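Provenance

Sequences were taken from public entries as deposited. Structures were produced by running a predictor on each sequence independently, with no templates supplied. The record for 3'-5' exonuclease from Clavelina lepadiformis is shown for reference.
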Amino acid sequence: MASKRMLPPWMNREIQFGTDYSEEQVLPVMKLPQSCEVIYSHNEKDCSLLCAELSKSMKLPSVVGFDTEWKPSYTSGRENKIAIVQLCPSLDRCYIFQVSKMGFIPKPLQDLVQSSQITKVGMSISSDLWKLYRDYDIDHRFTLSSSLDLGELAKSLSILSDKKWGLQSLTKRLFNMDIDKSQKIRTGNWEDFPLTCEQLNYAALDAYASLFIYEHLQKLKKTMEQKP
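Predicted structure for 3'-5' exonuclease:
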């Protein structure tokens, strides 16, 4: 008999939407649930097999949480290539593809990112997709047309139209919770191999939170549309 899926405590709390918070207030931190499997891939063959399996298992059209990370450059006018691509197709599974270790983006992963049937959701997502185009020639005509910026989606709702949103600020506004944006991890070396557990958790949480926020915003939008 399959065991009942247990949600983390913060997902079981009654969410007080719109609760005001101060910058000094210590908020509970959103964490990646133990039920969410993190799948780490760093070679071409493994990446191709995982993406082919994922493509077959997805019911189209579909939505995935999306993000990228790269090693910071401290040289003026120079920017390193994207090192990892994160995909979260469901709230119980996130993929971390370390493309810097592969040296390129395998075609099955390209196909997923470029698919017009798979909507990529994330914060300031167009910047990531343009960088994918510059770094790896991933066709931006397809990626941009099949993407959705969470900040813009939030602003389209009258109750969230009052500011420019980031992942952290939107998490606070929607759930009265913080999300770990450790500068030490964020500005670390994403080309290091293997990635640390802290890096994998940080990267997976960004993609997970993007999908989680998207689903919550869609519910809010539906509720508002049903009101007389």
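Strands lie at 29-30, 37-41, 62-70, 82-90, 93-98, 118-122, 147-149, 178-179.
The CA atoms of residues 115 and 142 lie 7 Å apart.
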